[in-house]
Amino acid sequence: MARCVEDVAIVLAALVGHDSLDSTTIDDKIELSLDEEIDLSKLKVGIPDEYQCEGMSQEVIDTWRSVADMLSNMGSRVSRVSLPNTKHSISCYSVLNCCEVSSNFSCYDGIEFGFRADTTGHTVEEVYSKSRHEAFSDTVKGRIFAGNYFLLRENYENYFNRALKVRRLIANDFHTVFEKQNIDLLLTPVTLTEAPLHSLWIQKDNRQQVSTEDYCTQPVNMAGLPAITIPCKLSNNGLPIGLQLIGKKLDDFRLLSIAKKLENILHFPVLLFEDTNTGV
To answer: Collapsing DSSP states into helix, strand and coil, what is residue 241?
Structure first.
């Protein structure tokens, strides 16, 4: 999260690049500056059919349509595209995330790594159990249990391997749109509604929260593509409604350049921090 697109670009420029101590980093050469002269009229913008889903508010749909029309009026070629495996992304994420959580959190034993509960005079097994019981929330515990189940030898093929295959299908959908249909940018909603009241949100369990509000953002994570959310307007209740821009793989700074251009056009208010010493 940041105040504006330029702040995101500054942080990304500091983070990008290979780190010999981090096996998840890459050494690809990436342009690290924003293109201030980027021409929106030359863009091919895709509008995924599958992202207008059940439960999406009319205000979100209207905002999506309004920005798409604005881009079209500016000369961008806006067209409908299909990402048919979008509907499977939440299920795919749920399996892979639980497997990753169960694997990554296995080292939290309260002795060599992680939080240690007050277990003076207890056995090693009790230290493990009490420390993990106190450190992990119910959601984390549930994901660890589920991940262990998915990774059992008798379940591995039906859950973990199948989820990996679905993730590949999701990634292939994006590849088809970007590389074969020559789309430069995808424009989608972020959430189905404006921010809900906390009192209503906490009535849902974690699975319900994820299945509703993550519908539009999970596919891009499964595909490993850059995406950014920019606020576009205020709802009738005075809450921000944003849209998601999705770019090609490793095209992060071009995506940020487009986002900054849109940010300047939409004129959504930017938060400024006041120096308490100077009042500025």
So the answer is: strand
Regarding predicted confidence, which is higher, 120 or 161? 161
How many whole angstroms separate alpha carbon 224 and alpha carbon 93?
12
Is 205 or 70 the better-scoring residue by pLDDT?
A: 70
| Rounded Cα distance, 176 and 51, in Å | 17
Q: Show the beta-strand stretches assigned E in the chain.
A: 44-48, 77-81, 185-189, 227-234, 240-246
- The tokens describing 43, both together, are 């863009």
**Domain interval for residue 16:** 5-85+171-266
Does the residue 227 lie in any domain? yes
The model's pLDDT over 125-183, given as tens digits with 9 standing for 90+, comes to 888 888 888 889 988 999 999 999 999 999 999 999 999 999 999 999 999 999 999 99
Give the residue from 38, 43, 49 showing the smallest Cα distance to 70: 43
Q: How many domains does the chain have?
A: 1
Question: What CATH number corresponds to the domain at position 37?
Answer: 3.90.1300.10
Distance separating alpha carbons of residues 23 and 20, to the nearest angstrom: 7
CA–CA separation, 274 and 79 (whole Å): 43
Q: Residue 51 is encoded by which pair of tokens?
A: 């992202």
CA-nearest of 201, 176, 205, 199 to 191 is: 201
Cross-strand bridge partners of residue 240: 234
Q: Are 31 and 253 in contact (CB under 8 A)?
A: yes
Distance CA 101, CA 140 (A): 8
In a domain, residue 133? The reply is no
pTM of the model: 0.87
* C-alpha to C-alpha distance for 180 and 157, rounded to whole angstroms: 31
